[in-house]
Amino acid sequence: MAFYLLRRMVSAIAVMAMVGVFVFLLIRLAPGDPAVVLAGPSATEQMVANIREQLGLNDPLPIQFVHWMRDLLGGDFGTSIFSGRLVLDLLAQRLEPTLSLSLLTLALSVTVGVSFGILAAWRAGGLVDRLLLVFSAFGYSVPVFVIGYFLVYLLAIGTGWLPVQGYAPIGDGLSRWFVHLILPTVTLSVPYIAFVARIARASMLEVLTEDYMRTAAAKGASSYAMLFHHALKNAGVPILTVIGLSFAYLIGGVVLTETVYNIPGVGRLVVDAINNRDYPIIQSVLILTSGLYVLINLAVDLAYTLIDPRIRY
Amino acid sequence: MLMRVSSEERIIENFREDKTIDNDVLLDVRDLETHFFGEESVTRALGGVSFQVKKGETLGVVGESGCGKSVTALSIMRLLPKMSAKTVGGEVCFHGRNLLDLPEREMRKIRGNKIAMIFQDPMTSLNPVYTVGRQIAEAVEIHSGASRSDALSKAAEMLRLVRIADPERRVNNYPYEMSGGMRQRVMIAMALACSPELLIADEPTTALDVTIQAQILRLIVDLKKRTGTAVMFITHDLGVVAETCQRVIVMYAGRIVEQATVTDLFSRPVHPYTKALMRSVPDRRRGKEHRLPEIPGIVPSLREPIVGCSFAQRCPFATEVCREKSPVLEEYGADHAVACWHAKEVVSA
Ligand SMILES: Nc1ncnc2c1ncn2[C@@H]1O[C@H](COP(=O)(O)OP(=O)(O)O)[C@@H](O)[C@H]1O
Ligand code: SF4
Ligand SMILES: [Mg+2]
């Protein structure tokens, strides 16, 4: 186990180093120049050149990369080119809305998705199952922003039941925070519920025909115990994998959702940073996100051992 | 007029029932009919199966693969696949109640408690993600309402009963940490945990190595003696029947063709199918690869209703009447019944 963790850590560092190189090159090779944006529309060539020099953008790429890595390893994520503020401070400000949205979405997708999938598998071909088929076709094919605007129109503008957009910090009251997050969470959850439910259904269907399910029934186990006790734990490994994957994909959806609902989160920070070619912010967010993926992956792999005793590291 | 006839009939029926109520009978299966519903066809897996299991006896159920032994057991337990199979006729009387009419809630109180079942493949019949102790304990918890810890100590006791060494440690094992023979012992422990009145064992040794087969057989016979539970022992191996059972029913194409005490069946088989089976009783010394004998001819398709005797296509004694009318199971001496039009000729042949 200790050896396994060590191996995972080494590979995590390798992965993040590669992500670092890739991210670094990608944003620098993309068209656009932060100096131009910073200097503004009326700036002269000379002013732009001075800014470039100041920002170190004239150094050869390998030197720039080494500088960035050196700072990173020292825990320095740099300062925003545009606002001059520490990237970490900017991130900290934006973390709460993004985290709130992500975690609520995860909670909603997993509970609803898994239950939906289980019920669909339990009575395969039945009403719930057909409902899931329609729902997932819808969830996969309709883009997040369409669902978002539709829900806003229906539940916020039309009826006034829910706020149209914006975010209320958790410190200003739990219910205000929650009410503001309902629509964004539901919007973002639709495709994940579909995804998780489909996988849960498929894995459950497979498990339900296993011999040990018949053994459980022969013992006199109730339907509830059969489904949630005997079947779910066996279907757990693929379901957990999908949940891990969903969480990794969440970030793309978060950016869109934050835009639709005008939520000042990390997603919006990145979008603005990309528009401004604010390299330090983009780099930091991407490298931190990749670190998060690595951690989630590890957590998922470790969680497997809790579900299935045959899995050992 | 009509009304009176039918009510009279009912009264007579009741009398008859009263007379046939035999205090020794534990399970009374009557005219059991189970169908599988496919895309386009209906498979008549059981075409009217009737038999009784007496208290404390071991009843053998033999027949070639596909003749309906498992379906009979699963119909009794009501464990058939819900989507595709249905018991369309008959009764399964247990303590004066027809199990087929019980609400699912009531049926659950029977399963694993009054009637328990073990299956052919011990490798796949245990849940891989729970310890064996917990799986045995579950049966105890469901039916006795015992606490988890009490149920777990009961599980250890049961493991000791099925002669698994070091039961206190073994309760914490997962199935993958055990051999096939040991897993089948766990299945037996689980099945007997609530002291059922009837244990249905569906080919419990077929999937095991020969030496392990013998051990498991001995265990079942021994536990049966000690607990007094009745056993319905399903097998395709007449040799196993001889070793374990008191009475036996022989099935063919979803019907019972002969029923007798074991001594009677072996000394005086009547039905041509039983005789053919006897002739080719596999030599147990040859190893585990003994399947049932090759009897020339084909088993009738269960997709169409069988007209006449289901064995007619393979039977050397078949005549016109065999192909037209289905023989019913009739008394043929004490505690012996046969479904064959030409039983007398066959016996003297
Ligand atoms: N799951 C199933 N789907 C369709 N038909 C089945 C199924 N299980 C059994 N049958 C039918 O029932 C017949 C009896 O099967 P079974 O009772 O399993 O035989 P065995 O005597 O070997 O236990 C088979 O020949 C087959 O036609
Ligand atoms: S009824 Fe006829 S065909 Fe059937 S077993 Fe008897 S002799 Fe053979
Ligand atoms: Mg079978």
Give the tally of β-strands of chain A. 0
Helix fraction of chain A by DSSP (H/I, runs of at least 4): over 70%
Describe the largest sheet of chain A: none
| Mean residue pLDDT of chain A | 90
Q: Portion of residues in helices of chain B? A: 25-40%
Shape of chain A: globular
The portion of residues forming beta strands of chain A comes to under 5%
Major beta-sheet overview of chain B: 8 strands, mixed
**C-alpha Rg of chain A (nearest Å):** 24 Å
The chain pair with the largest interface is: A-B, 23 and 31 residues
Estimate the mean pLDDT confidence of chain B: 89
The multimeric state of the shown protein is heterodimer
Give the overall silhouette of chain B.
globular
Secondary structure: number of strands of chain B: 12
Distance between the termini of chain A: 5 Å
| Tally of helical runs of chain B | 13
Task: Offer a quick outline of the entry.
The complex is a heterodimer of chains A (313) and B (349). Chain A has 313 residues and is mostly helical.
SSE diagram, text form:
The complex is a heterodimer of chains A (313) and B (349).
Chain A: H1 2-29, H2 34-39, H3 45-55, H4 61-73, H5 87-122, H6 127-141, H7 144-157, H8 174-208, H9 211-219, H10 223-260, H11 266-276, H12 279-307
Helix pairs in contact in A: 1-12, 5-6, 5-8, 5-10, 6-8, 7-8, 7-10, 8-10, 9-10, 10-11, 10-12, 11-12
Chain B: H1 2-20, E1 25-37, E2 42-54, E3 58-62, H2 69-77, E4 85-94, E5 97-98, H3 104-110, E6 115-118, H4 132-144, H5 148-161, H6 167-170, H7 180-192, E7 198-202, H8 210-227, E8 230-235, H9 238-244, E9 247-252, E10 255-261, H10 262-267, H11 272-279, H12 320-324, E11 330-331, E12 336-338, H13 343-348
Parallel strand pairs in B: 3-8, 3-9, 6-7, 7-8
Antiparallel strand pairs in B: 1-2, 1-4, 4-5, 9-10, 10-12, 11-12
Helix pairs in contact in B: 4-5, 4-7, 5-7, 7-8
Bound molecules: adenosine-5'-diphosphate (ADP), iron/sulfur cluster (SF4) and magnesium ion.
